[in-house]
Amino acid sequence: MNTVNRIALRRLIAATGVAIFSLVAVACDSDDAADTTVAATNGAVTEVTVSGQWARTSPMDAANGAAYATIACPSDDALVGAAVDATAAQKVELHETVMGGATGDTAMGMGSGMGSETTMAGQMTMQPVDRIECLAGAPAELKPGGYHIMLFGLVNPLKIGDTLSITLTFERAGDVVVVFPVLEAAP
User: Fold this and answer.
1) What percent of the chain has a predicted confidence (pLDDT) above 90?
2) What is the DSSP secondary structure assignment for residue 129, as one 8-state letter?
3) 87, 155 contact by CB (below 8 A)
4) Cα 164 to Cα 2: distance, rounded to the nearest angstrom
5) Would you say 163 and 182 are in contact if contact means Cβ atoms under 8 Å apart?
6) Cα gap 89→110, rounded to integer Å
7) Beta strands in 43-139 (DSSP E)
8) How many Cβ atoms from other residues are within 10 Å of residue 131's Cβ?
9) Other beta carbons within 10 Å of 83
10) Per residue in 27-78, pLDDT tens?
11) How far apart are CA 46 and CA 144, in angstroms?
12) What is the pLDDT of residues 88-117, one digit of tens each?
């Protein structure tokens, strides 16, 4: 192959690469909460699929917020942590909502304070958890009234149109960054 043909072939390959990259970028640039499939390496490659992700809008005086998603793992794994940039919130924890026990139980509330609140028997309360299991074939659902990502010390209220970039940490898959749009209700 002569030099002119090699140069033409290289330009064609480069143009094809740019075209493919542009198509992928356009496909990924969506305003809705489309599925996010990410592959993270932690020893072996594990594919984690995050779908329906969203963060709830917060009242102007709320210091705390919550984020939700459905997470599917092809092999057993566990969500063991989450983090957000300090410009969004001071602290992030994995939580679950449970039925309160006897009067005087304490749990973290979504009120304007960041401390503990006393709850009455039979009331729903939130408590931190160390892990959320993600079993193969049984997606983990983070939803209101169940498991969720709790955001403490919001820097600004969460309003429709905002997005949060949350790093989800999995026991096997490692860190996965997911963009959560702020909505009033689940997508």
Assistant:
1) 58
2) -
3) yes
4) 52
5) yes
6) 14
7) 44-56, 65-72, 77-84, 89-99, 106-108, 116-118, 124-128, 132-134
8) 13
9) 16
10) 333 444 455 555 444 444 568 999 999 999 988 888 999 999 999 999 999 9
11) 27
12) 999 999 999 998 764 444 444 444 343 444
Separation between Cα atoms, residue 178 and residue 163, nearest integer Å: 10
The identity of residue 175, as a single letter, is D
Amino acid at 108: M
Residue 32, φ and ψ in degrees, nearest 5: -90, 175
- Confirm if 123 and 103 have CB atoms less than 8 A apart: no
Q: What is the largest CA-CA distance in the chain?
A: 85
Distance CA 94, CA 142 (A): 10
Q: Is the pLDDT of residue 126 over 70?
A: yes
How many other C-beta atoms can be found within 10 angstroms of the C-beta atom of residue 119?
Answer: 20
**Token output for 69:** 């998603």
Six-digit token pair at 149?
A: 């990502």
Lookup: tokens for 26: 């356009």
